Description:
Strands 3-2-1-4-5 form a five-stranded mixed beta sheet, with helices on both faces. It has helices spanning 8-17, 65-71, 75-81, 85-96, 107-121, 135-142, 151-158, 168-183; strands at 19-27, 36-45, 48-56, 100-104, 130-134. The protein is built from eight helices and five strands. It has a single domain (8-183), classed as 2-Layer Sandwich (Nucleotidyltransferase, domain 5). It starts with 7 loop residues before the first helix and ends with a helix.
Amino acid sequence: MRISDRTLPQIAEYARSGRVVVFDTETTGCSRFDEICQIAAAEYVGGTLTRTFSAYVCPTCEMNPWAEAVHGLSLDFLFENGLAPEEAMRRFFEFLGTDALLVAHNSRFDTRMLDQECEKFGLCFAPEGVDTCDTLALARHLRPGLKSYALANLVDVLGIDGVNSHDALDDTLACAGAFFALLKNAT
């Protein structure tokens, strides 16, 4: 969903009384050849956290060394603790379900990685009644002039609990905190 003064009431309504699923991915890199190596999500109903999801994923490609330095996930760890990509995505899609607002920080990256994963492994990602919201775009719209719109900076600027640790579940919870804090006085 494109962020505008016209769509803000709809987004705020999801936050107040709807179902919001915030998610994040960690990846083997940023190219079209890279894959998801961790995916996490948190479900909020009426603004209250109801459940979380996190899965490590065994990639079928190499890990970019700079990506491993960022999130700390080695191939050895993922092969020992991760699910097959198809199984991890199936579980995520099941968690997401239908009729929700899907939220991520810089959602273009995360949804592109989901799309790539689906294409590579022959999966279908077409949830019914799911809109998307990007907290990066939301922050730029509601808080113009910040020096940085990085998630770690938003957590600090907004004074919310949470860390941007590059663990997908930690980042999901930090993103959720930013989402709800940004909308608190938006409408």
